[in-house]
Amino acid sequence: MIKALIIENEPAVSDYLVTLLRRNFADVEVVAVCDTIASSLEAIRLYQPDLVFLDVELNPPETGFDILRKLASIDFKVIFTTAYNQYAIPAIKFSALDYLLKPIDEEQLQQAVKKYLHEKSATSLLQRDSLLSYSHGYDHAKIGLPTVGGYSLVFVRDILYCQGESSQASLYMKDKKHIVVNRTLKECEEMLEKFGFCRIHKSFLVNLQYIKQYHKGDGGFVLLEDDSHLDVSKTYKDDLMSQLKKL
Known about the structure:
Helix content: 25-40%
Mean pLDDT: 85
CATH architecture of the largest domain: Beta Barrel
Strand content: 25-35%
């Protein structure tokens, strides 16, 4: 089941959107409808949606962009809904999956959600390929990643950590290079956790093999072999400590 969150301050619009989704997509569940920044952030934390329909103009001066800016990483796909087309360029900067103008057209909505389903299917294929790669052992494991310029094949052993950036992720490599991929940090985690990667923060996924030290604190931080310092949040601290004890 695909978890969808609707962020919209006009009840008539949100009700219509719920009706369209239920009529066209049986596997899409609307987990909540929100109309403020505070309630939206809480719903994102609570439900961890896969897909968010985001109104641009909420309750002036609040905008949908304000919600995205408050998130350390965006682990969901965004379909913007608005009555104004001048927000298209800012939406692109947030790697929007699609941009629907009000009044929402049913056919355009269908196309937008099908685009999400296509990307989700492509991600599933990548996860399958990573499982096949895993069968050859950690040292030989490779994963394929879609990038802005095409497609990159990388050895898992060469990835130090991943950082979520908007609805994309950056992979930082042993050779000091980094690759920006068109995948959320959550999707990277689903592909890499089987290879010994651990989520330590909303923004960071780290290869446990490269942790040199853990320093205590509120959440603390880890020092990697390339001397990178990555914060550990209290939410993920216990899981990290459990994983480190298994090494």
